[in-house]
Each structure stands twice: as structure tokens, then as C-alpha cells.
Amino acid sequence: MSLTLLSRADDVLREGTGRGAEGPPARPVSWRWRLAILVVFGLAYGAAMGSYGDPPAARPLQMAYSAIKVPLLLGASFAICLPTFFVFNTLFGLRDDFPRVVAALASTQAGLTVILAALAPLTAFAYASGIDYRPAVLLNGLMFATASFGAQALLRRNYRELIAGNPLHGPMLRAWLVLYVFVGIQMGWILRPFIGEPTRPTQFFREEGWSNAYVVVMEMVWGVLLGSR
Amino acid sequence: MAIVESGGEKRSAWGRGFRELDLILRGDRTRPNALREGGLPIDPGRLSRVIVLLCVAYGFCMGTFAMFSKNGPAPAQVLASMVKVPLLFYLTLLVTLPSLYVFNALVGSRLTFGSVVRLLTATLGVNVAVLASLGPIVAFFSACTTSYPFMVLFNVAVFAVAGFLGQMFLLQTLQRLSSAQLLEEIRAEPSEEKPAAIRPPSDEFLGRHVKTIFRLWLVLFGLVGAQMGWVLRPFIGNPDVPFSWFRDRRSNFFEAVFQALHSLFS
């Protein structure tokens, strides 16, 4: 089972290159496997992310929370954005390609978690060498950014054929990214804390968590510009 | 098309309504060939049921903000939003339909009254389908936002996106209708390509009538729609003001948007 999962994860990374690990072309990955990869690898990175503390991994509850939050963040943002994307694709005459579009996007998400999971040992090592909380937050941001860049390459490869078939898929993909990032930022904001400051109690949601990331940022910018608050 | 109709007999009225909306979204109902066979082949009554249902669904998403208000949930506001969103669209259509038709006849278009009604219902269908598809995002932001001005502007933006796509559909269909009539006169065969409700603008020739009608409709429908929204407010429900079905009729939509922008940025 776990060996199959690893080989499927390998297929996700190689999708669109036309090359398998040992000669034969990579097999297309089924839905269930994509979901399984998203959940398992997401859990793995989340657990590593939540292991911050002195000594590391001293808060199993925080690890469990963080582990759940990574697949939740990706999956929920994806699900919320999908209806809009479906209607947009239909309106612009791309409905027949939609199953392939969703497959490409889902594969990218699964690939993102695989890359994240591969970076988990780096995060764990940094924690073990005793970095402070702020740098730890930044480090995780960096890991997510790296994984996103990697996933971008996957996305472009998975989309190449679609764009070749109909160039309209290009602007459509950009629209998707704007929408997904817009929702994803807010989703990440309400799912805080991902790492959990060791001095504060472990909790799934922060009590002041129900707020809007964009309003908070705007208030911060405004506060800096006015020099007050 | 005949096949679709006969195959659809067994489905329920709702199923057929959704099928109809789907065909409009796919651009199947507005293919140049289909238009040439005489007007827009849709049933406005059946389509309207689906439109109302989608409006109610969006109203629910919009009203979610009131359920998570800091002063406790306000289910009456959710109910009000669910009733008001369909009202907003249909009252606007009712108020503007006569003048839209008259202007359309004045500039020499050949659309009959029935065609205008069908065309506008189809446009409304596209508009509302986009709106409803953005519903989950609106509900998500409503649930976790406490800032009222943000929600007002967000909803305005969502309505603007839906309205923009609806108008693109209208412009394109008007253009296809007029070129279908033109082709009928010269008995030419239109080139058939893959159907799409909206194509990105190309240097396609836009008829003079089409442009005039479209601009008139856009201005009229947009202005009346925005003001109708203002008269029917509150849609979202300011948490600092107790619930009421209607607010007093002072001020107007554009002033309010400007004020929301002002309070969000200060």
C-alpha cells in the first residue's frame, strides 16, 4: 500500500514528461490516488511544521492540528473555487476539456504536497537546531513558496497540451490562479496557527481568528502610513 | 435540437430548466445556425424557475454574513436576502423591458418582443449562473469577516463580475442574431465552429445597430439595476443597525459605494 502510494507520488511528479522512473511512460494517476497523496503527504508536512518547540515534537496535539490543516487548506480552497471555474470554462466554450482541466489542477495540488513532504526533513532539521519562532515562521513561508514554485512547473507541464489545443486555456489558468490565491490566503489566515507559538496555549483556531486577512493588511498599511495605531 | 427536446420529455421541469441553462452557458443555444432557424430557441418560463432558484441560493450565501454577526445571528436577514436577490433582477427587468424594447425597435433592429424577452432571460441566466457559482466564495468570506464595508465592496465586485460576463454574452448574442438575419437575406452558409457562449473580443465587425442597442441597454439596465439594489437594501445587513426589511430611501447606490470605499481605507 505505502509502496504503491510512493510510486503513485512519483508518477504525479513525472506526469506530462512522458517518462516513467524506469523507461515506460508515467501512468495517469487516478482520482482516489490524487486525493490519497494530497492527504498523506499534506499530513506529513503539517506534522513536521507543528513539531516546533523546545524540545521539538513536545506538543503532539499541535502536531496533529497542523497536520490536519495542510490538506484542509488546499482541499477547501480548491473546492470553494471549483464552481466558479466550472461556469467560466463552460461560458468560454471549454466545457469538453473540463475533466482534463480539473485533473491537471488536482495533480498539481497533489504534487505540491509531495514537494512539501520532501522539504519536511529540512524544516525538522531547522527546528532541531533550535531556531527562534519568528525565523521558524519565515522558514515555513519559504518552504511553501518553494513548493509553489515547483508546483508551477508541474502545472505548466500538465497544461501544455490543453493550451496547445485551445489557447484560451492560458488566460483561464491565470484567472484560476488569481481566484485560488485570493481564497487560499484567507483560508490560511483563518486556519492559523499553523506552527503555534510555544508560549501560547495549543488550540485549533485562535480566538481572534475570525477576521479577514485583507482587512487586517489594509489596516496595517494604513497604520504605518498614518504613523499612529 | 429536436433530439434534445424529445430526450428531455421524461425529465422533471427542474431538470429541463437546468439543461436549458447549461445549453445556454455552453453556447449551444446561440450557435449561428440555431439562431438562423428563427430567434433564440429557449423557454423563458422554464429558465426563470432555475434563475430564481440560483438567485435564492446566492441570497443565502450573501445573508451568511448576518448569521455570523457579532451581535448574534439574524435569520430574518438571511430570509430577506434570499427573497430580495431574485426580486432585484426581475423588478429591474420589469422596469426596463418596455423602454429596452422600444429603443430596440427605434434603431431598426428586427427583434420581436418575444425575442427580446428570450434574449434578456438568457442574459439573466448567464449573469445569475456566474453569480451563484461565486456563492461559496462569498459565503466563506461572509463567515469569517467582521468588516461590513469589506463585505459590501466584495459583493459589489462579485455582482460586477457576473454582470460583466452577462453583458458580454448579450453583446455577442446580439451580434450573432444580427449576422444570422443578414445571412438569411443573402442565403449564405455561416461557418460552423465549436460552440461557445462567449468568445474573447476579436476584430469581428460589430453592426451599427448592435452597438447602439447594446450601449442603450447597458446604461439603462445598469443604472436601474444599481438603484434597484439600493431601494431593496439591506442585502447584507449592517451589524450596527437592527434588522429591517427596508431602509429609508435617501441617498443612492453610487454614493454608498464611495462611502464604503472611504470607510474601508480610513
The greatest interface here is: A-B, 29 and 34 residues
Count of helical stretches of chain B:
10
What would you call the quaternary organization? heterodimer
Helix % of chain A is over 70%
**Rg measurement of chain A, Å:** 19 Å
- What is the first-to-last residue Cα distance of chain B? 56 Å
Summed up, the domain count of chain A is 1
Q: What's the main sheet of chain B like?
A: none
Helix/strand order of chain A, N-terminal first: HHHHHHH
Taking pLDDT < 50 over at least 5 consecutive residues as the criterion, the unreliable ranges of chain B are 1-8
| Molecular shape of chain A | globular
| Rg of Cα set of chain B | 20 Å
Q: How large a portion of the residues of chain A is in β-strands, by DSSP E?
A: under 5%
Q: Please indicate the percent range of residues of chain B in DSSP E strands (runs of 2 or more).
A: under 5%
Termini separation of chain A = 55 Å
Low-pLDDT runs of chain A: none
Q: Quick check: average pLDDT of chain A? A: 86
Number of beta-strand segments of chain B: 0
Please count the helical segments of chain A.
Answer: 7
The rough form of chain B would be described as elongated
Main β-sheet description of chain A: none
If you had to describe this structure to a student in words, what would you say it looks like?
Chain A has helices at residues 2-14, 31-49, 60-91, 98-128, 133-165, 169-190, 213-226. Chain A is mainly α and 229 residues long. Chain A has one domain (2-226). In chain A, helix 2 (31-49) packs across helix 3 (60-91) and helix 2 packs parallel to helix 4. Chain B has 266 residues and is mainly alpha-helical. Chain B has one domain (12-185, 199-264). Chain B has ten helices and no strands. The longest helix of chain B is centred in the middle third of the chain and has 39 residues, at 148-186. Chain B starts with a helix and ends with a helix. The model of chain B is unreliable at 1-8 (pLDDT under 50).
